[in-house]
Amino acid sequence: MKNLFAVLLLLVTVTSAQAQFTPDPDYERVLVPVFFFGGGQGGAKWFTSFDMVAPANGFQLATPVLRDEQPCAFCPCEIKAQVEEMKAETICGQFEHPFGLLLWVPRNVDKDAVHTSLRVSDRSREDDRAGAQIPVVWESDLYADAFVLLDVKTEPRYRSAIRLYDAFQYPTDFVLRFYDMEEFRKGTREMLFETIVRAERVSTPPGRFPLRPAFLMIGDIVAKWPQLASSESVAIEVAGTSLPISPPQYDRRFYAFASITNNTTNEVTIVSPR
């Protein structure tokens, strides 16, 4: 009986894992990679602004995360799921989280007709800069194979961070390969080094529409890997890994980007794969 129970438990676990990697039939994941408010180095006051506009024919998200009415930026707000036609919708601040956020958009929505803006700014320095734009990534634009982040600064004037995502919420190992940028421009493929890191899943309530991706942030890649200091800039090849299960895990689920912050001005530059 104990053996039968163990087999049944294994079948349930495997079935659950398989379903987790299957795209939802009715809704597409849309990754909002950053949605964070808080302090940082050098007295920074980081603020994230998000807007989504449907020029024609509004639609309804699977989960209500949009701000309905709110008297101030950090006040509790009424939430809704409806993206109204020709109205800039924003995410309610109560969903702020270092892992970012997943929106669930109906698959019959034309993504080319939906416009988004995701911007991170330092409000302690907003007199002379408006912030940095970060891509909002639809499920169909996530990666299955290796991709490259180019010209990520490693010289002392900057601190560069990398953020890694699995939009299908599984704790995932990423293989990172680092190349000197100048040598990479010459076509030289000699690696500085290779390492493996893991993006972890946040604990979220079970259900069909989880809010968070699996995530890892390395806040300063030179502090983490001092050997990078020998270069002024690097190319980072990123490859997510999948488990050898049957049926195979859905593979188009990986994303990453780097941010380069000037240590003096706190000005941020975003490096995305496209």
Helical coverage, percent range: 10-25%
Strand content: 35-45%
N-to-C series of helices and strands: HEEEEEEEEEEEEEEHEEHEEE
**What is the CATH fold-level name of the largest domain?**
Hypothetical Protein Tm1070, Chain: A
Mean residue pLDDT: 86
Q: Sheet bearing the most strands, described?
A: 4 strands, antiparallel
Description:
- This protein has about 270 residues and is mostly beta strands.
- It folds into 2 domains: about 25-140, no CATH class; about 140-274, Hypothetical Protein Tm1070, Chain: A, CATH 2.60.290.
- The chain is about 10% helix and about 35% strand.
- It has 3 helices and 19 strands.
- It has helices at about 1-20, 180-185, 220-225, and strands spanning about 25-30, 40, 45-55, 60, 65, 80, 80-85, 100-105, 115-120, 130-135, 135-140, 145-155, 160-165, 170-180, 195-200, 215-220, 235-240, 255-260, 270.
- The strands form 6 sheets. It has a 4-stranded antiparallel sheet with strand order 2-3-9-10, with no helix packed on it. Strands 12-17-14-15 form a 4-stranded antiparallel sheet.
- A hairpin with a 5-residue loop joins β18 (about 255-260) and β19 (about 270).
- Mean pLDDT is about 85; it is low at about 1-20.
